[in-house]
Amino acid sequence: MDHYASYILSYGYFAIFLFLYLGITGIPSPEESFMIFVGLTISQGSLNLYHSIFLAFLGVTLGMVSAYTIGYVAGKPLFHRFGKFIGLPPHRFKKATEKFEKNANWAIIMGFFIPGIRQINPYMAGISRIPFFMFLLTSAIGAFIWTVTVILIGTFLGNRVRQFVHFTPFHLALVGVVFLILFVLVGVIRFLKREK
After folding, report:
1. Are 87 and 195 in contact (CB under 8 A)?
2. What are the residues whose beta carbons fall under 8 Å from the beta carbon of 86, sequence distance 6 or more?
3. CA triplet 9, 38, 167: central angle to 5 degrees?
4. What is the pLDDT of residues 99-143, one digit of tens each?
5. Are the C-beta atoms of residues 143 and 174 closer than 8 Å to each other?
6. Is the pLDDT of residue 195 over 60?
7. Residue ranges of the alpha helices (H) in the chain?
8. Rounded to two decimals, what is the model's pTM?
9. What is the DSSP-derived secondary structure letter of residue 129?
């Protein structure tokens, strides 16, 4: 949490754009946890709700367009060469492409709420040659729903916590630890299911 705070103090709203742009394109970067932190910061009055949502939305949408362009230009060879590193060897990639093409619009919108899927979806859309305008429209809808939902959850949590305790850096760190534990537990459960 202190790490996030230092970025926001140093770069302001641009940090929101950058974190989410990088996260969507697949470069390791926090997304949900960072947006929840942004929401908590908004509840303290340090950030503006509308500016934060706009920059989050812009970062996510431009990240989707960048990933789509890479998928469109680099195409299947990129996934055939590196897909095994993200759990998509050639045979699974073929199945994933077929499933994606059947429900591309819904996959893009709903995929925002599934870590890993939201990073792969724009590449798949580019590889599958989904029409750009349709991709942009569904990406914008999904990005708006996702960013608004997660930031408002953080804002709601911040407002609720402030009603019961004095909001200090310790409490902010505590909230961060709880979310980190939940994130790790979900990751472990998903890993164990995959191994079965």
Report:
1. no
2. 116, 120
3. 85
4. 888 888 888 998 898 888 888 899 889 988 899 999 999 999 999
5. no
6. no
7. 2-11, 13-25, 32-43, 49-74, 76-82, 90-102, 104-111, 117-127, 132-164, 169-195
8. 0.74
9. T
